[in-house]
Amino acid sequence: MTEDDLDSPSGQPRDTGDALREHDVRTALLDLLAEVGTVTATEAAARLGYSSGLCSFHLRQLARHGHIEEAPHSGGRARPWRLRQHDPGADGPAEDGFGDLARGLEDESWQRWLSRRDQAPAAWRHDEAFSAVAYLTPEEMSRVADAVRRALAPYRDREQRPLARPDDARPVALITRLFPLLPDTADETGR
Question: N or C, which terminus of the chain has less Cβ within 10 Å?
Fold first, then answer.
């Protein structure tokens, strides 16, 4: 019996079907948090069609493993949760596990889009995907990242303030990765 089995809602060891269902529930919760920003177990249950107890359990498990955190709130019984915030000014690198999870969810969402885009309303059946390579200094790379953040700033409050969203607004994945390209072999200089 594993530690996760002891923490399961029933206290019994899980079978493979239960493990797959738990993955589905946790993925759905993470997707929902990415879409709406913060959510309580009751709100998640209403949106996802699971029980509030099941959502509460999996939200706590996601928090225990460092994927989400309790959001600030004014007290009371309701516990809102949000995706874990990373402080870019903190010492040390961002937790690799969360980065891997986020990239996996991004890739999964991209594949879902590709396979189901024909089901989207006609006005939403296109995407804006692009990539580029630019020769930058570390300072220039930081300035480019800051410029992207500034470009997105006018839209950030819509996540927490649904009434600020235009009627036809939908959640859109915005993924930016700036990183130096390393040489393929040790003898290449990267120039």
Answer: C
